């Protein structure tokens, strides 16, 4: 039983909307990490995206456009997480362990729920 009467195009649009503005905050995210600390920016952005994830069922029931807007906002906020992670890697991971750490971290990227 389909709860939402969304065609395949709408479903794919919702999945991809997260990434539409995700790249916009990559450079500002690095600057924010330098100014306020990578750990703070990384934690704040991931925490806020997680909280907004709780709103997905409500927005989906409200209407397609509300869910689409939420996914765009989530992607925008999450845009600062990647540069923050890179800053933390450069600061906290010893040079001889960085390649293994980065491989493990980025290697899990294709297994994220938004890639299934």
TrEMBL record:
Q: Output the GO biological process annotations, alphabetical, semicolon-separated.
A: monoatomic anion transport
Where is this gene product found?
A: Membrane
Transmembrane stretches in the record are 41-60, 66-85
Asked if the keyword Repeat belongs to this entry, the reply reads: no
Highest taxon of source: Eukaryota
Q: How does it sit in the membrane?
A: Multi-pass membrane protein
InterPro entries reported in the protein's UniProt record: MFS, MFS_dom, MFS_Na/Anion_cotransporter, MFS_trans_sf
Q: MF terms per GO, please?
A: transmembrane transporter activity
Major subcellular location class: membrane
Q: Where is the Major facilitator superfamily (MFS) profile domain?
A: 1-116
Q: Which GO terms describe its cellular component?
A: membrane
Which stretches are annotated as coiled coil?
A: none
Q: Which UniProt keywords apply?
A: Membrane, Transmembrane, Transmembrane helix
Name of the protein in question: Vesicular glutamate transporter 1
Gene this chain is encoded by? slc17a7_0
């Amino acid at each position: 039983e389909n709860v939402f009467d969304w065609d395949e195009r709408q479903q794919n649009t919702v999945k991809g909307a997260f990434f539409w503005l995700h790249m916009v905050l990559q450079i500002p995210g690095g600057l924010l990490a330098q100014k306020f600390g990578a750990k703070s920016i990384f934690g704040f952005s991931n925490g806020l995206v997680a909280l907004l994830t709780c709103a997905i069922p409500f927005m989906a029931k409200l209407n397609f456009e509300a869910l689409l807007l939420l996914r765009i906002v989530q992607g925008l906020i999450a845009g600062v997480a990647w540069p923050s992670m890179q800053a933390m890697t450069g600061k906290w991971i010893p040079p001889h362990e960085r390649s293994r750490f980065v491989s493990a971290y980025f290697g899990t990227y294709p297994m994220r729920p938004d890639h299934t």
